[in-house]
Design goal:
InterPro entries (chain A): FTR1/Fip1/EfeU
Oligomer: heterodimer
Structural class of chain A: mainly alpha
Helix content of chain A: over 70%
Organism (chain A): Capronia coronata CBS 617.96
Radius of gyration of chain A: 25 Å
Shape of chain A: globular
Number of strands of chain A: 2
Low-confidence stretches of chain A: 369-378
Radius of gyration of chain B: 35 Å
CATH class of the largest domain in chain B: Mainly Beta
Protein name (chain A): High-affinity iron transporter
Shape of chain B: globular
Largest interface: A-B, 71 and 63 residues
Strand order of the largest sheet of chain B: 10-9-12-17-14-15
Number of domains of chain A: 2
Strand content of chain B: 25-35%
Largest sheet of chain A: 2 strands, antiparallel
CATH topology of the largest domain in chain B: Immunoglobulin-like
Number of helices of chain A: 15
Number of domains of chain B: 4
CATH superfamily of the largest domain in chain B: Cupredoxins -  blue copper proteins
Strand order of the largest sheet of chain A: 1-2
Helix content of chain B: 10-25%
Structural class of chain B: alpha+beta
Mean pLDDT of chain A: 71
Distance between the termini of chain A: 67 Å
Strand content of chain A: under 5%
Distance between the termini of chain B: 161 Å
GO molecular function, one term (chain A): ferrous iron transmembrane transporter activity
Main location (chain A): membrane
Order of helices and strands of chain A: HHHHHHHHHEHEHHHHH
Number of strands of chain B: 30
């Protein structure tokens, strides 16, 4: 059975899609609350809504084109190069994949936070634009007029490219057949969850879903990390042995006995059907080495430590000593000539009130440049 | 009786003795060789100059030549400085002198540097033999050469004018000890690939011949690993001897000579001196796991009719060596017409296999036993065990001992569970080869396509009436062979694969033939024990060097443990810990996922907002935590 479902691909597409959907939904809700009220100009509102949708779709389209080319080139050129010392490359790919998943994985659990983050970011962008009123030029004018088009375009493009890069990175070891299904299902799942979020469905159910999928994601990543170490070791062994290892199948001689923690003469994920699923999900190896077992456990311990740290930060506002470090670091930077302003901005930003920024967003800004006469001059 | 009478009798006796001695001297002489074994350098293939084991400062080594019935004495001095050595005189029966046979830890201790060892025995046999070092990783470094026993009574003596001795050999550029063969990184036990092949320890040489003349060519494969095909372009020849046994002349064009095998052939030259003919030797590439591009598998030497004419290279007609069809040696008929031995009194039935043991090295097995040398050379155990010598247990479990009764007919069935062919050699005997499958020829590798085929006693081809006898016989891939011999030569005899790599992997077993007779007939010189002492090796006691209780084998050398199968304790512990940490980790993720963002007070707010969003259009659609900021919005109301 060829590998037709790259689980890691699914999760990355899902996650990036979800983020894009959230940005779009934030924009739409901004529009609705600022301009979509019954007493306001429905024509402008509808036009802006259309701009948001058009922007998102164009962004997705461009991302798809670039991504397709990227993956095409990647598979066209890359695979021949790597087949020579497959296990070394596999190890590197797995390591990259596991790092990527680890970094982005926990963020899914804070997808609501992401939404908030985007609200602030967008608000900041809008406020900043309206403040720069003074130096108007042709480009700025155009940009202002199509803010509601450009913002979602850039966002979806960004998320799309991110997805492409991540999917590329995570799935370097996968055959091309492993892509289509998880990409499509990942997109659908992302859209669905995003829509449910937008509609304000049962938040708890969504959260459970996210928790479950994050657990799977980290099982994957732990397996990959372990598999990466295993591949490096196997590669080393193979280098010393020569071509004979491949010929040995899964019996004696196919593994380095000195490194082996367990070995069963079956269930080789590369030969026996079915076990490759365990391999990609849990990092199963019929021949486990000290390296692969220890790295698996170390990975989970690291995750536990990271989560503990993040929980502490959320409860107390910062990691122990972090606040003090942040302040002292930037006040130190502030003493360096030339960096004073940068440091001041950093110090200011951290204490800025997010709610304040959001509250500055008003109908004027959103509709700015869209109507015949700029609303601001009305 | 009178004084005269007694004195005349004495005179007669004296006369008789002198006469007998004179006859003896004329018929059998003593041939003595002094071997000072040292390192020399040589470059036999013109590719790499290397250190080689030489004798008296020379290499190639001297060919030992004796006449049938001679006493041969070889005084060996190990001047290598860093390496043990011995000499095995391959094919010699060593009747009553099993202790002169040569394999270390079987019939003697390895001779350490700086020690002398005298081999002294009578050669009551004829034909083509060879000698070589018989300690681990030794003879491929050059320590091997022909041993010829001339026989004035050979039936073909009148048929040839001149004789040549031709040795064939594989050749390594590295020291055997430096080649990492028994290694974690050679798990399949892939045999090291030779760097070249030699013909009389050189290459591209010529045998000068006259037209219309018959020559006896003695062919010996003195290699360590690779069998070679042999033929002479446009010539046929007659086989007259194999491994020291004269056979009825048999016409042949191609021979397959496995390591340690010998053939004597009569070649009659053509009636013209126009051309020189290539003598072609082709390495059996089926034995090689990989064939490096630089390795020349077929080599040309010449039957040189005219030194001034060109020496053409052989034209190969086959792509692979196994397409050559060699003469099947089992069809030869011994010239003495010795009949098929009767049904055996004792049968040994063993199967060859290869596997890895717990240290990751590849080993070879006969019935799951990989020969592991005992602490005391087996013959010394025989000599020191008294009555207990007939108990095979005392020789240790891992020497795979078999005690044979004097004059028993022994049948040895050797099945091959391995996909390679193995030239098996029995010390101290030549044996009747009575069955083999598949036969030499185009079907030799046929059993490779399925499971190994063992010998079936109730269904086999008819045994020949006058079976060929030899001392090295090739076991086909996944096939079998059956041999018979009479246990009439008391001694300790090794039965082993003659591929030196396989011997080091333990593809051997030891036969202790009529142990009580050995004690009676064998005398071990003090010098042999001195050599043991110099090397710090015990020479009394059982395989575990226990001199008190011979049946107590505590401390015997054992083969490495088998590979653990499946999950061992540490595997289970590792798996359990991995599962625990995975579950704990996921627990943390769940806790994190359920924490802050959904703390109860905010959750209430979500609910109201949800209701609001459905019923009051203008209220922005939001969920979750952002409501903490929402109230600040001027558009709230």
């Amino acid at each position: 059975m060829p590998n037709v479902f790259g689980v890691q691909v699914f999760f990355i597409v899902f996650r990036e899609c979800l983020e894009a959907v959230i940005v779009v939904s934030v924009l739409l809700s901004f529009l609705k609350q600022s301009l979509g009220q019954p007493h306001q100009d429905q024509a402008i509102y509808k036009r802006l809504v259309r701009q948001v949708w058009a922007g998102s779709l164009v962004g997705v389209l461009i991302a798809l084109i670039i991504g397709g080319a990227f993956i095409g080139v990647f598979y066209g050129l890359g695979h021949d190069l790597w087949s020579e010392s497959e296990d070394l490359w596999e190890g590197i790919f797995y390591l990259i994949a596991s790092i990527i998943i680890t970094i982005m994985g926990l963020a899914i659990l804070r997808i609501n936070k992401t939404k908030e983050k985007w609200r602030i970011k967008i608000a900041q962008a809008l406020v900043a634009k309206s403040k720069k009123e003074g130096n108007r030029n042709w480009l700025g004018d155009w940009g202002r007029r199509y803010t509601m088009f450009l913002l979602p375009l850039i966002t979806t493009l960004r998320e799309g490219l991110e997805a492409v890069v991540f999917v590329g990175g995570v799935s370097l070891g996968l055959p091309a057949t492993a892509f289509p299904i998880p990409v499509v299902t990942g997109l659908l799942a992302g859209l669905l969850v995003g829509y449910v979020l937008y509609r304000g469905g049962n938040a708890m159910t969504i959260q459970y879903f996210l928790i479950a999928s994050t657990c799977i994601l980290y099982l994957l990543a732990a397996g990959m990390f372990s598999k990466a170490v295993w591949s490096f070791q196997f590669w080393q062994f193979q280098e010393k042995v020569g071509a004979d290892v491949a010929e040995a199948g899964d019996g004696p001689g196919s593994y380095n006995i000195r490194e082996t923690v367990w070995h069963v003469n079956c269930c080789n994920p590369e030969i026996d059907n079915g076990w490759d699923v365990f391999n990609s999900l849990l990092g199963w190896q019929n021949s486990a080495t000290y390296g692969s077992v220890i790295s698996y456990n170390v990975y989970w311990i690291a995750i536990m430590l990271a989560i503990s740290g993040m929980l502490y930060e959320e409860r107390k506002g910062s990691l122990p000593f972090q606040k003090a470090f942040h302040r002292s670091f930037f006040s130190f930077v502030g003493k360096i000539p030339g960096l004073r302003r940068y440091a001041a901005r950093k110090l200011e930003a951290s204490s800025q009130n997010a709610a304040h920024i959001v509250s500055q967003v008003d109908a004027d800004m959103l509709a700015h440049g869209v109507a015949q006469r700029p609303l601001a001059e009305k | 009786m009178s004084k005269l009478g007694s004195s005349s009798l004495l005179q007669l006796l004296l006369l008789l003795t002198t006469f007998l001695l004179a006859v003896e001297q004329a018929a059998a002489k003593t041939v003595t060789y002094d071997f000072n074994v040292t390192w020399v350098t040589a470059n036999p293939d013109g590719m790499t100059e290397r250190k080689i084991i030489g004798v008296n400062g020379q290499w190639p080594l001297p060919v030992i030549e004796v006449d049938k019935g001679d006493r041969l004495i070889v005084n060996m001095y190990n001047g290598l400085g860093d390496k043990n050595a011995t000499i095995h005189f391959h094919g010699m029966f060593q009747n009553t002198t099993s202790n002169m046979d040569g394999p270390s830890m079987v019939t003697q201790c390895p001779i350490p540097p700086g020690q002398n060892f005298t081999y002294d025995f009578t050669v009551n046999q004829n034909g083509t033999y060879w000698y070589h070092c018989h300690t681990d990783f030794c003879y491929p470094d050059g320590y091997r050469q022909a041993l010829i026993v001339h026989d004035k009574d050979a039936y073909f003596n009148d048929e040839y004018e001149e004789e040549f001795t031709v040795t064939l050999s594989d050749w390594y550029h590295e020291f055997v000890e430096d080649i990492q063969f028994l290694s974690l990184y050679n798990p399949t036990g892939a045999e090291p690939i030779p760097d070249s092949f030699l013909f009389n320890d050189t290459q591209r040489s010529s045998l000068p011949v006259k037209p219309n003349t018959t020559y006896l060519i003695r062919l010996i494969n003195i290699g360590a690993f690779v069998a070679q095909y042999f033929y002479i372009e446009d010539h046929t020849f007659r086989i007259v001897e194999i491994d020291g046994v004269y056979v009825d002349a048999a016409e042949a064009d191609t021979l397959y000579i496995a390591v340690a095998q010998r053939y004597s052939i009569l070649v009659t030259t053509k009636n013209s001196t126009d051309k020189n003919y290539p003598i072609v030797t082709v390495a059996d590439s089926d034995l090689l796991d990989v064939i490096p591009t630089h390795l020349q598998l077929n080599n040309t030497n010449w039957l040189e009719y005219n030194a001034d004419r060109p020496h053409p290279d052989a034209v190969m007609h086959v792509d692979l060596s196994d397409e050559l069809v060699p003469f099947d040696d089992i069809t030869l008929v011994p010239h003495d017409r010795m009949e098929l031995l009767p049904e055996p009194d004792f049968e040994i039935n063993v199967t060859v296999s290869m596997n890895n043991l717990d240290n990751g090295f590849g080993y070879a097995f006969l019935n799951d036993i990989s020969y592991t040398a005992p602490k005391v050379p087996t013959i010394y155990t025989v000599m020191s065990a008294g009555e207990l010598a007939t108990n095979s247990e005392i020789y240790g479990e891992f020497t795979h001992p078999m005690v044979l009764e004097h004059n028993d007919v022994v049948q040895l069935v050797l099945n091959n569970g391995d996909s390679g062919s193995h030239p098996f050699h029995l010390h101290g005997h030549n044996f009747q080869v009575i069955d083999r499958a598949p036969p030499f020829g185009p079907h030799f590798n046929d059993y490779l396509s399925g499971d190994p085929v063992p010998f079936n006693p109730s269904n086999h081809s008819a045994f020949p009436a006058f079976p060929a006898r030899r001392d090295v016989f090739v076991l086909p891939p996944q096939g079998y062979f059956v041999i018979r011999f009479v246990a009439d030569n008391p001694g300790v005899w090794l039965f082993h694969c003659h591929i030196d790599w396989h011997l080091s992997q333990g593809l051997a077993m030891v036969l202790i033939e009529a142990p009580l007779k050995i004690q009676e007939t064998t005398h071990i010189p003090q010098q042999h024990y001195d050599v043991c002492q110099a090397g710090g090796i015990a020479y009394k006691g059982n395989a575990a060097a226990d001199t008190q209780d011979f049946t107590d084998l505590d401390g015997q050398n054992k083969q490495v443990k088998s590979l653990p199968s499946g999950f061992t304790a540490r595997g289970i512990v590792a798996l359990v810990f991995s599962c625990i940490s995975a579950f704990l980790g996921m627990g943390f993720i769940v806790v994190y996922g359920l924490s802050t963002p959904l703390v109860p007070p905010e959750k209430q707010e979500i609910d109201t907002s949800d209701v609001a969003s459905i019923h009051d259009g203008p209220v922005p659609v939001t969920v979750g935590v952002q409501h903490t900021v929402e109230p600040a919005s001027p558009y709230r109301d």
